[in-house]
Design a protein that fits this description.
Number of helices: 10
Distance between the termini: 57 Å
Helix content: 55-70%
Number of strands: 4
Shape: elongated
Number of domains: 1
Oligomer: single chain
Radius of gyration: 26 Å
Strand order of the largest sheet: 1-2
Strand content: under 5%
Largest sheet: 2 strands, parallel
Order of helices and strands: HEHEHHHEEHHHHH
Length: 295
Amino acid sequence: MNSSKPSSLAPEILKDKPRLPWLIVSNDMFYDSDAIEPRHFNAWRRKNAFRTPVHILTILSISVWLMITLGYFGYISFFIPLSLRIVSYIAVGTLTSLQVVCTGYTMLVDPQDPAVTRARQPRNIDYVKIAGGYDHHCEYLNTCIGSRNYFPFCWTLILAGTISCFYTAVACWGFSWYFTCRDDFDATVAFMFNLSLDARSQQTAVCWGIFMYACLCAVVSFSVFNLLCFHFKLWILGLTTSRYLDARDALKYGSETNLYDQRPIPEISLIKKLKEVFTRSSCEHDRYNTSMNIV
């Protein structure tokens, strides 16, 4: 993948550098297709998530985030009593601001290894050699996750999961009003949308709209916390996402899939890894006690 003569090939490559699309649905088109020659694509480098092309999942994730955030502050929050509503605005607003900061840093920072940047070589398709401490390429944030932005990436997941879980709880609370205290529900909906208290059909439609909002927030919360648990598992295993996926494919297909990585296939079972850690700790403890008895 690496060019043996990057300095001599770079001007020619840069001269013929392709015009990439603004929006893509898959990154695979750059690696294994005739659409763009990899030699030319190597001359291009995304410094941050806001450089084109933008993955469609990035647009989707930002749109969903805006939808549930504006939905809460604009409508769902009115089911909270006024005194607590102000507190919720401050708390949720603070958490949302922190999430924006973490997400923005994750997307804006250049994950490329400084040594590669100083070498001024064309981009290499092998992300592991480009992004410092490469973990994976996040299509939802349109950037590579490495050592420079992994910590804020994890905090982005924690904050997003916590906030969306809170949105789900409040929406479910408001939805339950339709069945438990209909008069309060009708009054709240009439205030939110400037409706008449007798507009039963519109209030019923709003009720099911709140239900759909709660389902959307629940899906977001579950997905984010599931991803967070996955990265916690990787932390225990001591593996990066890319290394874990390579090992999983190797075990599934019976051979090492990454020809450029000749390391032994690591353990990817969390239970076996924990047993191994506890067994090693127990052996070390017994060895220490034996040495102390000898002394």
